[in-house]
C-alpha cells in the first residue's frame, strides 16, 4: 500500500488519480491546510476507485505511528508541504517546521516501521536555494541522501519538479495564491481586476522572469516511472523534472490572450525576494534514467486550465 502525503493538494490529487487508475492501494494523509477533501472525493469518483483518507499532519508522530501500524504501507510518496516562496521569506520558521520537521518526522517513522521506498516532491529551486522554501526542500533532499548512505536497502528519489501547470479537469486545477496560472485565472474569472507581474527588469528577452513550466500530466508520468525505478534501484536519486524549456511570464500571458480572446490587464511591481531570472532545468537525466519524455505542451496546459472559463462564455 502507498501512503500519499498531501494527496488532497494540486500535484497530490493528480498523483492519486493516476495511482488509482493503475490499480494501486492508496492511503492519503493530508491536514487540509491548503488541500481540499472535495478534491480527494472528486478523484475517487472519477477514477471509480476508493482510497483511504486520514486528515492529519505529518508532524504528528502519534498519528503516523497509528497509520503505519494499522496499514500495510510499503511505499511513501511525500507531497505534503507548504510551497509559497514569498510566504516562506516572511515566515521562514513556519516553512522549516512544516517542510523540514514534518519530513524528518515522516522519515523517522518510516525507518521505525522498515518502510524503504520513498518518492519526495522536491523543487528545482533546491539546487541553488534562494529562499527558505527552497532551503527547506534542499535540507530534506540532503537528509534523504544521508539516510540512504547509512543503509543500502533504502530506495529514495527526490524529484525536483519545476513549475507544474494545467490539470486533468478544472476541479483539480491549482488554486494557490503565488503561482502564475491560478493568478491569471482569477483575473479571467473576475475575482481580481489585474495580474501583478513581479519585475520586468530581469536579464531575459522581455524582462519578465522565465520559468520551466511543465504539464502536470507529464509530472505525474515521470513520478509513476520513478516509483517503478525504485523497485530496481537502491540508494538516493535526485532528478530534475520539468519541460527543459523556459517561458517568460509575458509569453504565458500572450498564450492566455490567444486562447481566451481577451487581453489581460496587468501591473508591473518590483521583483519578489527569493525569485530568480530563469530557472529552467536539464531533464536529460530523468529522460534517460526513467525512460520518460514530456508529451504535453504549455498550450495544452493552458487549454486544460481555461476550459471552464471558455465554456462559461468568457
Ligand atoms: N506546484 C509547484 O509549483 C511545485 C513545484 C515544485 C515542488 N512542489 C512541491 O510539491 C508538493 C505538492 O505541491 P502542490 O502544488 O500540490 O501544493 P498544494 O498546496 O496544492 O498541496 C500540498 C498539500 O499538502 C498538504 N499539507 C501541507 N502541509 C501539511 C502537513 N504538515 N501535514 C499534512 N498535510 C500537509 C496541504 O493541505 C495540501 O493538500 C509540495 O511539497 C511542493 O513544495 C510544488
From TrEMBL:
Listed EC numbers: 5.1.3.2
UniProt pathway: Carbohydrate metabolism; galactose metabolism
Reactions accelerated catalytically: UDP-alpha-D-glucose = UDP-alpha-D-galactose
Domain of life: Bacteria
Cofactor(s) recorded in Swiss-Prot or TrEMBL: NAD(+)
GO cellular component: cytosol
InterPro entries in the record: Epimerase_deHydtase, NAD(P)-bd_dom_sf, UDP_G4E
SUPFAM superfamilies recorded: NAD(P)-binding Rossmann-fold domains
NAD-dependent epimerase/dehydratase domain mapped to chain residues: 2-236
Gene3D superfamilies referenced in this protein's UniProt entry, alphabetically: NAD(P)-binding Rossmann-like Domain (3.40.50.720), UDP-galactose 4-epimerase, domain 1 (3.90.25.10)
A molecular-function term among this protein's GO annotations: UDP-glucose 4-epimerase activity
Keywords: Carbohydrate metabolism, Galactose metabolism, Isomerase, NAD
UniProt record, GO biological process: galactose metabolic process
A Pfam entry, by short name: Epimerase
Classification via PANTHER family: UDP-GLUCOSE 4-EPIMERASE
Family: Belongs to the NAD(P)-dependent epimerase/dehydratase family.
Protein name: UDP-glucose 4-epimerase
Organism: Psychrobacter urativorans
Amino acid at each position: 500500500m502507498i501512503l500519499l502525503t498531501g494527496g488532497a493538494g494540486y500535484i497530490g490529487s493528480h498523483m492519486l488519480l493516476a495511482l488509482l487508475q493503475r490499480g494501486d492501494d492508496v492511503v492519503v494523509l493530508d491536514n487540509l491546510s491548503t488541500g481540499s477533501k472535495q478534491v480527494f472525493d472528486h478523484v475517487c469518483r472519477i477514477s471509480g476507485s476508493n482510497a483511504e483518507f486520514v486528515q492529519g499532519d505529518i508532524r504528528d508522530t502519534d498519528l503516523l505511528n497509528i497509520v503505519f501500524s494499522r496499514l500495510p504501507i510499503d511505499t511513501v510518496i511525500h507531497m505534503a508541504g507548504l510551497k509559497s516562496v514569498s510566504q516562506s521569506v516572511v515566515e521562514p520558521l513556519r516553512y522549516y517546521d512544516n517542510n523540514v520537521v514534518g519530513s524528518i518526522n515522516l522519515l523517522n517513522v518510516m525507518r521505525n516501521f522498515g518502510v524503504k521506498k520513498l518518492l519526495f516532491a522536491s523543487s528545482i529551486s533546491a539546487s541553488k536555494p534562494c529562499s527558505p522554501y527552497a532551503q527547506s526542500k534542499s535540507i530534506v533532499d540532503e537528509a534523504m541522501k544521508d539516510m540512504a548512505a547509512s543503509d543500502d536497502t533504502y530506495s529514495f528519489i527526490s524529484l525536483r519538479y519545476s513549475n507544474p501547470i494545467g490539470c486533468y479537469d478544472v476541479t483539480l486545477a491549482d488554486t494557490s495564491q503565488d503561482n502564475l496560472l491560478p493568478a491569471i485565472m482569477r483575473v479571467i474569472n473576475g475575482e481580481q481586476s489585474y495580474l501583478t507581474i513581479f519585475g520586468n527588469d530581469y536579464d531575459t528577452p522581455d524582462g519578465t522572469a522565465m520559468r520551466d513550466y511543465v504539464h502536470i500530466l507529464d509530472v505525474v508520468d515521470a513520478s509513476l516511472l520513478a516509483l517503478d525505478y525504485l523497485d530496481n534501484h537502491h540508494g538516493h536519486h535526485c532528478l530534475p523534472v520539468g519541460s527543459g524549456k523556459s517561458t517568460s511570464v509575458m509569453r504565458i500571458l500572450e498564450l492566455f490572450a490567444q486562447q481566451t480572446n481577451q487581453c489581460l490587464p496587468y501591473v508591473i511591481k518590483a521583483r519578489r525576494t527569493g525569485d530568480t531570472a530563469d530557472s529552467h532545468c536539464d531533464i536529460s537525466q530523468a529522460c534517460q534514467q526513467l525512460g520518460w519524455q514530456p508529451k504535453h505542451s504549455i498550450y495544452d496546459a493552458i487549454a486544460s486550465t481555461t476550459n471552464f472559463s471558455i465554456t462559461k462564455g468568457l
